[in-house]
Predict the structure.
Amino acid sequence: MPVLIIEGSFDPAALQASHEKTLTPGSFGATANFIGTMRSVNEGDPVVGMRLEHYPGMTEKELQHIIDDASEKWRLIDALIVHRVGAMTPGEPIVLTTAWSMHRKDAFEAVRYLMEALKSRAPFWKKETLADGTARWVERNTPGY
Amino acid sequence: MAIYVKFFASLKEDIPDALREVDAADAATVSDVWAAATRIADMPAHVVCSVNHSHEQIDHPVKDGDEVAFFPPITGG
């Protein structure tokens, strides 16, 4: 159940497919994922770039704890979390969470948990650059749902 | 006999001259580490802290060799 921190662009579909090849064919019947992509607007302001900072060591440890917690709550065959750090631009993927299970309920609920837990527990911070050239730290995550 | 201190994101920019090492004899809790490293008596309510890569509260005890980190609210995902 891997955790990957990546500096630079990544292809969520390719990474998910690559990891899925390591699983036993037929061992799972459901795959659910969430892909977070950088928006070009935040708090009503146009955003042209962003830099994501993390806490090396703690971030990976916390993400692994989140996967472990999900594995205790749901019957998972496997799970994957990929999160980008460094500089990025709107439209690029930031995060991928994927859960594999026998049936859809576990995969759906687990992937939601992975994402929500990540947003409150894993140490990442965003600094965005606005269209007028100014930069600001994002002070809070938008509610999202 | 040191406690190692890290600051992240906006905190790192806001208090750039904060100490990265505190004498373990000067700090019994995370709160003491904050005060010794930043010379700011009270840790702002929004600041989050960790000890040895685990989320902790400001009254958590610390000891020689610990890594204590301070950061603003998390905004990943």
In short: The mean pLDDT of chain B is 95. The beta strands of chain B are 2-7, 21-23, 48-51, 54-56, 67-71.
